[in-house]
Amino acid sequence: MTDVLTSPISVILVEDDPDLREAIADYLRLADFAVTSVESGMAFYREMAVAEFDLAVIDLNLPDTDGTQIADFLSQRTSMGIIIVTGRGTPADRLRGFEVGADLYFVKPVDCEELVAAARNLHRRVQGDRGTRADGPMATGDQWTFDQQTWRLVAPNGRVVALTGKESQLLDCLVRQPGVAVSRQVLAAELGYDDLGPESRGLDASLRRLRQKTLVETGVALPVQTMKAVGLVFAAPVKRVHVDRRTARAVP
Fold it and tell me: How far apart are CA 183 and CA 185, in angstroms?
């Protein structure tokens, strides 16, 4: 069991400017933070599907998504501390940031010493809010399970969604590599839709119904995120139980 009192504070930093990303990451590491730095929303979701973090430091102007979508994703699904660091400094921007779950909001240029102090204080508060626990914010207890054989999706709270064949096909495409975006064209083709354009209405309708069904039946939002000009990504830990065609049995 990890000792939460002595473990370094783990941070995922999302910043597309390479020089600023390196500068902030280096300063945090010098202050004994454990830092994973990524340049895009897609890279962020890929890390979130396989790793655990205490805090997120997020830029808003990313090449493939808006950072407010990431903050909203984290606030709904995790107990992580959320810090926005951005060039957007209007009152409306700040308000929007806090509405989607940001705990702290910094306008660039950011003073790294102030950021470190704020991050440490935020971590202490977050730990106090959720209690001392060994599991990370997106650890096994937050894992989804997709059973391809029985067409069932099990949410982290144990509630089950009975899937249609089309919904099962869609999820199977997304959870083969959680955290990796699948293009809309690939998804539409695998689901047998004739319209393979970027705005496939059949695919949109299937995803919309699945999101609504999952939320109603489990009380948990489906962690499928849209990455503009890239595709869709299942952005949470997931266990895929699939059928071994050679032995006709389900295997993990």
Answer: 5
The residue range of the domain holding 35 is 10-130
Domain count, the chain: 2
Neighbour tally for 55: CB within 10 Å: 26
Predicted model pTM? 0.67
Rounded distance, CA 168 to CA 149, Å?
9
**pLDDT tens-place string over residues 46-97:** 888 888 899 999 999 999 889 999 999 898 888 899 999 999 999 999 999 9
Radius of gyration (Cα) for the chain, nearest Å? Answer: 19
Per this entry, what is the length of the chain?
252
Q: Assess contact for 34 and 79: CB atoms under 8 A.
A: no
Residue 146: strand, helix, or coil? strand
Instruction: Count other C-beta atoms under 10 Å from residue 195's C-beta.
Output: 12
Rounded to the nearest 5 degrees, what angle is found at the Cα of 137, between the Cα atoms of 60 and 114? 50
**Domain end (from 73, 104, 130):** 130
Task: Give pLDDT tens digits for 195-227.
Answer: 555 556 778 888 888 988 998 888 888 888 887
Which two three-digit tokens encode residue 93? Answer: 């921007």
The burial of 192, by beta-carbon neighbours within 10 Å (0-12 exposed, 13-18 middle, 19 or more buried), is given as exposed
Distance CA 74, CA 105 (A): 15
